[in-house]
Backbone:
């Protein structure tokens, strides 16, 4: 399978995953940058689980993405005049909610609640231990509960 | 489980997912840029109509330019502290005989021993020094000037390394507001294709930005700051930093120590890397191959992104000897060494603390990694097992996790900052306890000493794996969670004489 075929196979999932990590505005850039670096890396040819590797690359890229960017976007969207209000498809409250989570917690939430993966499967997708996934999920749930109860 | 909370989080996640944009197109063009030497990496950007962009003129910029000798003679000039005139060119001056100071610096050349990203030579750091016969008022600027002179004018010499910088040219150096200006003649722009030009620029940028105080630079050609290297259309606008050139590097760059450095214990091993899961291994060996120290460390980022790494590695050696500092990654496929960068260095003796041939004097228990085992002696590398907030803080400080908030997996972290090895006597009748899941849950089981020793290599050293990365682990190792690997921690219990009376494997989830 060529890199392009691998990319086409996983691109939609990766963009959704990245949306969960950095929000919709920068998701495409994060995926592009992660894939660019991955396909250009020398280790890529030895990778057997392409999907897991690409997910980890996107997660790493998202971690190096400036965390304040999403917060700034949310602030700008909330401050926007009605004439320049965000398009309906942009849900500012949702973005504000995920801004409360660490990138790792966001990853655990997206893979658990969107992809319906069990903690063990999330762990192997992200290359971390199951215990780590469970802890991130527990913290994410706790933070989101505070927010949703407000 | 709070079903209502779960359903609300699920709904929130779905709302988030519905905001996802279209997938971007396959980054084909950029890929070509990365993989084709004739076009170079994504940054700096190639612009073929470069001439149209023009160049900025340096005139009037308050910058002190120091110019090395126009001949190929090594420059021995340092910036006089009193010379702060604008756009001045200071020529080489004659100084009294008698060295009163020297500078030390890295110079970056290319080596066939290190495979670059396109299969060509990789970038390596070489340690050099320059004697001065006049006092050095500003050591950093002096070292900067000496480093660039050494790079451009001296070149690699007979070191067996290469330089992509044309021979016989001079270099000028200026500093303003913490930004270095490197002035080169027009000849710098000629010769070679864009791949060579990128290497050329990278050599200059890495050499010019090696000091933390001065980590950005501009290129100037014949006294004019330029935005574009015109011969190849490479944009160099704005302050250039190492980040602009990372994609030109092999997966591991070792900045410290540099080739030819004279090191003492502990050695600071550091640089940048882009390797699988940011996991790096290092080794200090003598020229005859004796391993003085080895271990693992993590870069701050990996698997597709560049991260810094640095680790202090102590070693013990009686007399000075030639040796190597080697940094590498282990293949995620089969654990073999890949991306190996090995620098010849001089290892000074008595740099490390004398190894203790007797163990901790007090009875007690400590966790350690074992580097050599036998029925009578074990060589241990003591560590610290941390949990909770302490573990998160330590792991963050060590660069293992990106933030304290992220937390360490499974709420524990084994910190092993001090790689000092100790040879410990094993008491007769020592108890060895390994962890096994044979009973359905993880529990300790006492095993005969011989059975435990058989899990290690024939020479008593551990297998070169972490406990969870053993590719295919044959019997009799199965079921003992990588007990014979270098990544397996053990709790050692000492009696009042400091002899090891119990060796108990620590299970790692």
Residues:
């Amino acid at each position: 399978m060529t890199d392009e075929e691998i990319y086409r196979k996983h691109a939609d999932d990766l963009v959704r995953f990245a949306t969960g990590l950095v929000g919709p505005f920068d998701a495409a850039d994060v995926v592009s940058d992660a894939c660019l670096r991955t396909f250009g890396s020398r280790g890529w040819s030895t990778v057997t689980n392409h999907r897991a590797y690409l997910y980890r690359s996107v997660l790493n890229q998202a971690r190096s993405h400036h965390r304040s960017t999403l917060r700034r976007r949310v602030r700008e969207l909330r401050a926007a005049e009605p004439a320049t209000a965000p398009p309906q498809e942009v849900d500012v409250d949702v973005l504000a909610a995920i801004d409360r989570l660490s990138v790792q917690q966001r990853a655990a939430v997206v893979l658990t609640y969107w992809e319906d993966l069990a903690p063990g499967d999330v762990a192997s997708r992200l290359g971390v231990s199951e215990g780590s996934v469970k802890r991130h999920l527990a913290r994410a749930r706790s933070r989101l509960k505070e927010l949703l109860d407000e | 489980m709070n079903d209502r909370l779960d359903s609300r989080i699920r709904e929130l996640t779905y709302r988030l997912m519905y905001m996802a944009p279209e997938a971007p197109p396959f980054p084909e063009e950029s890929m070509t840029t990365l993989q084709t030497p004739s076009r170079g990496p994504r940054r700096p950007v190639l612009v073929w109509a470069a001439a149209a962009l023009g160049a900025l003129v340096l005139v009037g910029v308050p910058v002190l330019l120091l110019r090395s000798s126009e001949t190929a003679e090594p420059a021995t000039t340092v910036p006089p502290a009193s010379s702060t005139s604008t756009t001045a060119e200071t020529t080489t001056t004659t100084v009294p005989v008698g060295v009163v100071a020297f500078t030390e610096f890295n110079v970056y050349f290319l080596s066939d021993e290190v495979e670059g990203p396109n299969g060509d030579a990789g970038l390596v750091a070489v340690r050099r020094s320059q004697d001065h016969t006049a006092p050095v008022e500003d050591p950093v600027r002096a070292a900067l000037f000496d480093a660039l002179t050494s790079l451009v004018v001296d070149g690699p010499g007979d070191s067996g390394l290469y330089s992509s910088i044309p021979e016989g040219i001079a270099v000028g150096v200026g500093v303003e507001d913490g930004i270095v200006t490197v002035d080169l003649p027009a000849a710098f722009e000629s010769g070679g294709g864009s791949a060579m030009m990128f290497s050329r620029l990278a050599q200059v940028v890495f050499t010019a930005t090696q000091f933390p105080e001065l980590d950005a630079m501009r290129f100037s050609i014949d006294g004019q700051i330029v935005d574009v290297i015109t011969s190849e259309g490479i944009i160099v606008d704005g302050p250039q930093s190492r980040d602009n050139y990372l994609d030109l590097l092999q997966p591991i760059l070792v900045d410290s120590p540099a080739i030819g450095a004279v090191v003492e214990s502990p050695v600071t091993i550091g640089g940048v890397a882009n390797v699988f899961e940011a996991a790096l291994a290092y080794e200090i060996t003598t020229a005859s191959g004796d391993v003085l120290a080895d271990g693992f460390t993590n870069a701050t980022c990996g698997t597709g992104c560049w991260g810094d790494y640095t680790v202090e590695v102590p070693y013990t050696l009686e007399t000075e000897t030639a040796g190597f500092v080697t940094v590498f990654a282990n293949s995620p496929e089969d654990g073999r060494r890949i991306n190996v960068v090995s620098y010849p260095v001089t290892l000074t003796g008595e740099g490390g603390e004398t190894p203790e041939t007797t163990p901790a004097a007090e009875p007690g228990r400590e966790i350690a990694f074992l580097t050599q085992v036998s029925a009578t002696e074990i060589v241990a590398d003591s560590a610290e097992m941390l949990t909770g907030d302490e573990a998160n803080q330590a792991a963050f400080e060590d660069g293992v996790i990106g933030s304290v908030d992220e937390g360490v997996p499974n709420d524990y972290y084994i910190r092993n900052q001090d790689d000092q090895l100790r040879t410990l006597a094993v008491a007769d009748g020592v108890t060895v306890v390994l962890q096994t899941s044979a009973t359905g849950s993880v529990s300790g089981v006492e095993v005969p000493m011989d059975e435990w020793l058989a899990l290690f290599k024939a020479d008593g050293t551990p297998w070169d794996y972490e406990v969870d990365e053993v590719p295919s682990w044959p019997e009799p190792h199965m079921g003992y969670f990588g007990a014979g690997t270098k990544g397996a921690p053990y709790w050692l219990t000492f009696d009042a004489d400091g002899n090891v009376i119990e060796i108990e494997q620590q299970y790692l989830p």
User: Anything to note?
Assistant: Chain A touches chain B through 66 residues (CB under 8 Å). DSSP finds eight helices and no strands in chain A.
